[in-house]
């Protein structure tokens, strides 16, 4: 009887010990009743001390039916805590992953995985509201992209957009942010950079796109027109900066200049 009781309590003790790790993981998650899970973790350690004390008591005691019943309860209690902690951890982690995926999908373009228009606007607002006194905004539009879609089909057009997005992303400096606004229109934000630095980035992007793009049965090179506006030189808010960068982009497209910096005479 003593051996059976000690085995039952030890099994419950093992369940408590195994419950420590998932409970600690939950405690490190912001929110999700943080104080309650910390309290549960504290209680698990208290239970462990109690279980050890009961095992020590059983060693030097004649075990009867009462002690055996209590040992069974201890076994079930430890197993219960273990199962609840593991199931709770898995549920909370899956919920967090789902929330993260939904947030990512809501703020990123599904084709290129670049931030979408809404995410770019949020980043632009944050940048204007921070201590950065200078940044540059690049508006970009692919040249003759409609012809790619009409000639090769939308599937090949999507492939071209994916390649272009990857090359733009790989060309940017560390703090640069690229986004796809829609269609074949992209934009880049360069914190702390004047138009002089932005022109170098624009040139690097254009050079990256001079490399062949391999489609299914074709090889093509696609050009890009880039307009540049600097904050606060060319605008003091989001609307003005993007509008003036857009004007400069259309000027570049009209003159085959590849990239243009906004100036007042373009209005």
Task: Please summarize what this structure is.
This protein is an alpha+beta fold and 267 residues long.
Write the layout of secondary structure elements.
Elements lengths: L1 H26 L6 H26 L5 H43 L9 H13 L5 E8 L2 H8 L1 H18 L5 E6 L2 E7 L3 H14 L4 E2 L4 E2 L3 E8 L6 H18 L3 E3 L6
Parallel strand pairs: 6-7
Antiparallel strand pairs: 1-3, 1-6, 2-3, 4-5
Helix pairs in contact: 1-2, 1-3, 5-6
Order of helices and strands: HHHHEHHEEHEEEHE
Overall, the morphology is elongated
Distance between the termini: 94 Å
Uncertain ranges:
none
Helix content range: 55-70%
Count of helices?
Answer: 8
Task: Give me the Rg, rounded.
Answer: 31 Å
CATH architecture of the largest domain: 2-Layer Sandwich
Total strands: the figure is 7
CATH level-3 fold name of the largest domain? Alpha-Beta Plaits
Number of separate structural domains? 2
What integer is the average pLDDT? 88
Percentage beta strand: 5-15%
The name of the CATH superfamily of the largest domain reads: Reverse transcriptase/Diguanylate cyclase domain
Order of strands across the main sheet: 2-3-1-6-7
Protein architecture, described:
This protein is an alpha+beta fold and 267 residues long. The protein folds into two domains: 2-107; 117-266, 2-Layer Sandwich (Alpha-Beta Plaits). Helices cover 62% and strands 13% of the residues. It contains eight helices and seven strands. It has helices at residues 2-27, 34-59, 65-107, 117-129, 145-152, 154-171, 195-208, 238-255, and strands at 135-142, 177-182, 185-191, 213-214, 219-220, 224-231, 259-261. The strands form two sheets. A five-stranded mixed sheet has the order 2-3-1-6-7, with helices on both faces. It has a two-stranded antiparallel sheet with strand order 4-5. A hairpin with a 4-residue loop joins strand 4 and strand 5. Helix 1 (2-27) packs parallel to helix 3 (65-107) and helix 5 (145-152) packs antiparallel against helix 6 (154-171). The longest helix is centred in the N-terminal third of the chain and has 43 residues, at 65-107. It is elongated and about 100 Å long. It starts with a helix and ends in a 6-residue tail after the last strand. The mean pLDDT is 88.
